[in-house]
Design brief:
Strand order of the largest sheet: 3-2-1-4
Strand content: 5-15%
Order of helices and strands: EHHEHHEHHE
Helix content: 40-55%
CATH class: Alpha Beta
Structural class: alpha/beta
Oligomer: single chain
Distance between the termini: 26 Å
CATH topology: Rossmann fold
């Protein structure tokens, strides 16, 4: 069971040692941690690297991080439809992709979503 879910901004914060990266690093070291990311984060990471002129770094970073993630969460039709329902129920603006992150409710497991600030 996943205990933490990194959104793309948290993953990027760890890669570039942005504020908060030490906390994320500690989570990788905890024996009880089980960390996941969304499959969508792969494309977002590649896009960010490309925008910074470092597209060639995607594969080495993926190969480095893949064993650290206990699961890369798929996004299928069911997840997308639940995200749409969540967006409709939200009382404030909820970007489309952010609606995909309550995977705990979708998977029936409690998760802590970690995002960079």
């Amino acid at each position: 069971m996943l205990t933490y879910f990194f959104d793309t901004s948290a993953w990027i914060a760890h890669i570039f040692k942005e504020p908060g990266w030490e906390y994320l690093n500690d989570l990788f070291d905890e024996d009880a941690s089980s960390i996941g990311v969304s499959v969508v984060s792969l494309t977002e990471l590649q896009s960010r690297l490309k925008s910074l002129g470092h597209d060639e770094q995607f594969e080495p970073l993926y190969e480095f991080y893949r064993p650290l993630f206990d699961r890369i969460m798929p996004v299928d039709e069911n997840v997308a439809l639940r995200a749409i329902a969540l967006k409709r129920e939200a009382t404030s603006r909820l970007p489309g992709f952010d609606a995909l992150f309550p995977l705990g409710a979708i998977c029936g497991k409690p998760l802590l979503r970690l995002t960079a600030v």
